[in-house]
Amino acid sequence: MKILENKKALILGVANDKSIAYGIAKVFYENGAILGFNYLDERIEKRVRPIAQEFNSDLVVKCDVSKDEEIKSLFEAVKEKWGSVDIIVHSIAFANKEYLKDYYYTVDRQSFLQAMDISVYSFTAIAREFLPILNEGASLLTLSYYGAEKVVYNYNVMGVAKAALEASVKYLARDLGEKGIRVNCISAGPIKTLAAMGISDFNEIQKISAERAPLKRNVTIEEVGKAALFLCSDLSSGITGEILHVDAGYNIIG
Ligand SMILES: COc1ccc(Cn2cnc3cc4c(cc32)CCCC4)cc1C
């Protein structure tokens, strides 16, 4: 019996095969999970559909998590196709990249609210909307970054958003615990994904991270996937509200 045999896992935020969500989907599929995907727009759909095929998935739904009606239509599609769901992975964030450099305080109200809406509120909205079809023992998982806990130059408004996301993981864990639903978070090291493209000197961020981290390297999307397998399976049945660092140990260094 594979760890996730017959478990239905909805993976939100695959953009291409470099995505963290792709690494999670691949490990889940290799461990017997049945997968479903969303895509943001037609451009992303072109990359997600072949990935869904690679994982024998026939559940691929458009969902822009900044729109309540698209979260509702995602819910209806999943309910119609699967009836219920065991795992939801939320690997979605957004900030106007022009604010991921220089001074944090330059961020305007609209960009601040947009970063919070997409990167933070969407996880709470998904949890609430899917509650009626979450199975007993279901797991919710989202992704964060060290810039939520300590000031990491350039991370700026994303750091404020991820701090809010990490707090929301704990409040959701409190709310959903009585229903046997666990809510956890992986704080991943810097990984060169589509989101990281165009970030000023991102290569420098990865280089410094690898130099300082105890393992003297960066982590891969597969390593995040393996930790996600643990947090979304019965292996972590006693864990909820947890922020698990998958960062080669970077966070322990003063
Ligand atoms: C230290 O600075 C950084 C460290 C890691 C990163 C990579 N990264 C982590 N979470 C992110 C969320 C977003 C972007 C990049 C992200 C891009 C826009 C969409 C949301 C970015 C910076 C800036």
Architecture overview:
The chain is of the alpha/beta class and 254 residues long. It has a single domain (8-249), classed as 3-Layer(aba) Sandwich (Rossmann fold). The chain has helices at 20-30, 42-54, 68-82, 109-130, 156-177, 202-212, 221-231; strands at residues 8-12, 34-39, 60-62, 85-90, 134-144, 182-188, 243-246. The longest helix has 22 residues, at 109-130. 44% of the residues are buried. Bound molecules: the ligand COc1ccc(Cn2cnc3cc4c(cc32)CCCC4)cc1C. Ligand 1JT binds next to loops.
Short description:
It contains 7 helices and 7 strands; from the N terminus they run E-H-E-H-E-H-E-H-E-H-E-H-H-E. It is of the alpha/beta class and 254 residues long.
Instruction: Tell the overall outline.
Output: globular
**What amount of the residues lies in strands?**
15-25%
Low-confidence stretches: none
Q: Please bin the fraction of helical residues.
A: 40-55%
Bound molecules: ligand 1JT
CATH class: Alpha Beta
Number of helices: 7
Q: Any idea how many domains?
A: 1
Q: Identify the CATH architecture.
A: 3-Layer(aba) Sandwich
Category from helices, strands and their pairing: alpha/beta
Mean pLDDT over the residues: 98
Strand order of the largest sheet: 3-2-1-4-5-6-7
Main beta-sheet annotation? 7 strands, parallel
CATH topology: Rossmann fold
The total of beta strands comes to 7
